[in-house]
Each structure stands twice: as structure tokens, then as C-alpha cells.
Amino acid sequence: AEAAAEQLRLYRQDPGGWQGCRSTREVTVSWRPSTEFAGNLYKGEGILPGSPQDVWECIKPVAGGLRTKWDQNVKDFEVIEAISDTVSVCRTTTPSACMRIISPREFVDVVVMKQYEDGTLQSAATNVEHPLCPPQPNFVRGFNYPCGCFCIPVPG
């Protein structure tokens, strides 16, 4: 989990190579080739009219959190094992897509939540196997490289 958090921190500090691919009034999505795997990294950025703590309540990776209520791509989120107050092993499921042509997915990740001195809040995760969470029938087991969210305070 700490390695995933550090990798995200390094992505955040390195502004080079990002190319815009989608944009609305609220969100800009950019991509760049990954140096860790054969594929691309994607970054979504937006400014929300709320305090960092209020925004964090909507995105933080916790069981019973608000993410499953607003994010149509997250069907369920459960904690398999709490390692500490800030680190846990979690299972996230996604619904089927494209009129059920794409099967539901499940992801098992080790997740860390951090708060920095400047008020930035971060969640970071990466794939892990756990004996209490073998692959489930009717789900395709997904694999996450280091991924997560930053909630960064901005003036005003």
C-alpha cells in the first residue's frame, strides 16, 4: 500500500507527457504511456465547490461509504481485513456493462489512506491476493496497478 501511495505521489509530481483526451466543464481526463506496464496511465482532474473533507466523504474507500451511491461503476465495496486505521484489504465489485456483454468485475486491493500537512487527502491501492477473498463465481477478477485519488485543497 505504501509503495502504491509513493508511486501516485511520483505521478503527481511529474507533469510531463500528459495528453488531454476528454474534457467537460467539470472534468479533464489526460493520459500518458506507463513505464511500469504495457498500457496507459489515466488522470482525471476537476475542482469541486466544497471543502476537502466534504469531497473526501464522497470518494474515500470505506465500507458503507458514499461512493457506491453516486458512482455507477462501483456496485459494492467491502473491507476484507483491516490491517490498521489507515490500511485495509478491500474488495470492489463493478456491474456488468454494454447490455451484460461485459461481465461484472471484482478487484481485491490493499488500500491506504493518508493525510498530508498541506491538507491533501489521498487514497492509494494496488492489487493483492488474500486467502479470505478467493475469486467469486460470476465475476471476472480484475487487476489494479497502483491507483487512487488525491483531494487537494485549493484557495477559495
TrEMBL record:
Gene3D superfamilies referenced in this protein's UniProt entry, alphabetically: 3.30.530.20
Annotated InterPro entries: StARD5/6, START-like_dom_sf, START_lipid-bd_dom
Q: Which GO terms describe its biological process?
A: cholesterol import
Q: Does the keyword Transmembrane apply?
A: no
Q: Name one GO molecular function term.
A: cholesterol binding
**Pfam family name, one:** START
- Identify the residues that the record assigns to the START domain, covering every copy: 1-156
> Which keywords, in A-to-Z order, does the entry hold?
Lipid transport, Lipid-binding, Transport
Keyword presence, Transport:
yes
Entry function: May be involved in the intracellular transport of sterols or other lipids. May bind cholesterol or other sterols.
- This protein is called what? STAR5 protein
